[in-house]
């Protein structure tokens, strides 16, 4: 039975939260996760040794949910599996609306007793009208109300990406990766074994959510495959869905069964269903983040002709290969553009046919080169390579140069992106971050390598072509 929007509204934006089972052993992590919560927070704990630390944090503690002196909207259940039925009984009596069950060891364990307990929990909660998120999950990150399930989540960096994930680790990684990459997050939901709340419910919810511009999903196996793909077909034309499928191999399917109790199914059927729906397929965390970033910054780009600004000849050759391997075109610039380039371009170790090798000697003509490249009728998207070697130019010179890229983008109206070229990304991390911050402020996305930029652009072009009727 589908979960109603009203239930999810209440679940994701609670006014009163209770954490059951916060412990000194793990530094009261579930209470600390709620340190920015804008509503009222309570604790439920019966162990005197744990209660001392809870009270020192200034959080009211009670021995049971029913003792809390006001209605409770959302309960975090962080108790051993054997105690869950007792917490559920109190939740029913209290009239709780939503239970997020962090507790694991249910159907994913494969044990018959655990499977039966999960089924009984689902039946009891359904009869009582309680929405269960999980079990075996991390729950909800909603920066709008200050709810977190991990300390690395930034409640101040809100944007248009919503994340749904059967894996708590991937939910955390996607959330932090998106925010670190310049993509603000609207909400994240880790839903684990999905005994009541499943991926189709979340897809449909975020499709109708005006604050969501892109949906990033990690799915191991929906309970009802037919319902999932029906929801995907309805949602993908409204909002881009970046879909990362877990359990694509025999080893992965075994892991999925023991992770969330999911039946991963045939990857061929999965790929066909995603393709028919017009979703964006991703096969890794990096591909999810890159696609979401490209969608966020570039808008509805459908052209596949890339104008590349490179550095040296060898780099330009490699970048041409990377974009071509991604089935993108790197066309020769038009004759009028080439004629104008020839008037000033110094060809010592450089070329301007596309890629345009700026190098050091031609950098003084950057504004003119950018105007010609962005204005060329053979170019749909501009991709610039950025070296991160320090010492050659000051930070002010680099910032001034990058500003010219933003001005050329604004003047031409053509999408623009940047890609780093570094054989040593760890030592070069700091200058890469500095360049990324400047370009982010200009609305230009950066990617760690040409190959990642090319693959992400191909996915986004395919998505917009499919849903604009240009496909095929």
Provide the helix percentage: 40-55%
Classify the beta-strand content into a percent band.
15-25%
So what's the overall shape?
A: elongated
**Which runs of at least 5 residues are low in confidence (pLDDT < 50)?**
none
How would you describe this structure to a colleague?
There is one protein chain. This protein is of the alpha/beta class and 472 residues long. It has 17 helices and 17 strands. The protein has helices spanning 5-12, 29-32, 48-56, 84-94, 112-128, 168-180, 199-207, 225-235, 250-260, 267-277, 285-298, 313-325, 335-342, 366-375, 395-412, 429-441, 450-467, and strands at residues 16-20, 40-44, 61-62, 74-77, 98-101, 131-133, 139-141, 161-165, 185-190, 214-219, 241-245, 280-282, 306-310, 356-357, 381-387, 416-421, 446-447. The strands form 3 sheets. It has a 6-stranded parallel beta sheet, sandwiched between helices. Strand 16, helix 16 and strand 17 (446-447) form a beta-alpha-beta unit. It is elongated and about 80 Å long. It starts with a helix and ends in a 5-residue tail after the last helix. The mean pLDDT is 91.
